[in-house]
Amino acid sequence: MLIGVIADDFTGASDIAITLSKGLTGEGGLETTQYLGVPDAPAAGQVEAGVIALKSRSIPADEAVAQSLAACRWLQAQGCQQIVFKYCSTFDSTDAGNIGPVTDALAAHLGAQQVVVCPAFPAMGRTVYQGHLFVHDRLLSESGMEHHPLTPMTDANLRRVLQRQSRNPVAHIGWQTVVQGRQALRDAFAAARQQNSDTTLLIVDAISEQDLTVIGRACEGAPLVTGGSGIALALPHNFIARGQAKGQRASVPPIDGPEAILVGSCSGATREQIAEHQKKHPVMMIEVADVLSGKTVPDHLVAFIQAHQGEAPLIYSSGDPQTVKAIQQQYGREKVAAALDSLFGTTARQLIDAGVRRLVVGGGETSGAVVSALNLSALTIGEEIDTGVPAMISQGEAPIALALKSGNFGGKDFFARAVATLRGGIA
Ligand SMILES: Nc1ncnc2c1ncn2[C@@H]1O[C@H](COP(=O)(O)OP(=O)(O)O)[C@@H](O)[C@H]1O
Ligand SMILES: O=C(O)[C@@H](O)C(=O)COP(=O)(O)O
Known about the structure:
Its EC number is 2.7.1.217. By secondary structure, this protein is of the alpha/beta class. The protein has helices at 10-22, 61-77, 99-110, 158-165, 175-178, 182-195, 209-218, 235-241, 268-278, 288-293, 298-307, 321-331, 333-353, 364-373, 414-425; strands at residues 3-7, 32-36, 49-53, 82-86, 114-118, 126-129, 132-135, 138-139, 170-173, 200-204, 224-227, 259-263, 283-285, 314-316, 358-362, 378-386, 389-394, 401-405.
């Protein structure tokens, strides 16, 4: 294994896994496997990039650090020469963490004196300029992310956001340097090292894939790199150019069989996709209060999916910002999230036991809850369904096909397309 990724949620893990698997256009990427939690056995010999999916974005910082270090140790034991910490392209975190504490701990563990921090993902409209994070033409804090149920992002200034979370100094390298190319950026790294001998977190601007390619190439040899999936765009190139990887990917077979779509994301994009899906497919809405009171239980969800087989049935809990706020005020944020995680997790388990073979999940935390309940160990990365969302197939007996969609990702017809792609589109 050459590159090891520690991803703080499951959809983010598949996002960076498809990036590593594709590599630069015309060159190819790495043979990539996504692991669900830290594996307890060595990786198969042919894996070139291993992505460990944790559910560590919204847990207490000390637990996130412990899990991330355990993942890092396993990846190092597989031979990884470079570790990537993948967080959300909207920098989802709170003042308590977990991006700062995990980055600090990994940097100390790996002896990394400088750590690039770059959440940019231009294909999804996330760019970093002058140290500020934008979502399309809006500052992060005015993009809708200020209403996120778990990690509301109310400040777009990444230097400020990260400095509140990190023990290490935070510095910035502007786009004016990045645009001059790899050597100019490496010179800027060296200059920053001279200025400060402490471990330094370097927020690097990027507004295009070209910028991310420059940054990735400048990170050749860095023990630790952090960012959204865009940071991984050119990392395979560094190994392919040195002849350490061949630029080929694994191929995986299509999976047919009963299907289900489970959605917990409350993002605007996901709510639009649900509305679109509802026009032609059966859709069931879950009232959160009914889940908390025990009126809605997994059996109801399973019965709905079974009654609508072959029609791409979808079940969602997603609410608009006002509904989410009201229910959280009434019951508490953690209690609501835990009840929904448990509902979706148990439902998924029952669905697979009942023969469902294709599962599409909307939402990062929700995907984590679902996949954790399925006791899967590893997923092979297939074709990209939509930007940042691959079709995946579980390794081992009785494979199931999965698509784990970040709340903000995907076109309007994503859910129907994902179900169809899992059936025939995994090439
Ligand atoms: N109607 C609702 N009210 C309050 N919280 C909700 C509701 N529906 C889902 N949630 C919670 O919102 C969170 C959505 O997060 P996540 O699944 O990561 O989506 P995203 O990918 O958009 O961030 C989950 O913790 C989920 O349990
Ligand atoms: O970087 C991204 O935007 C995604 O890969 C990601 O991490 C998404 O997280 P969720 O929105 O919580 O699914």
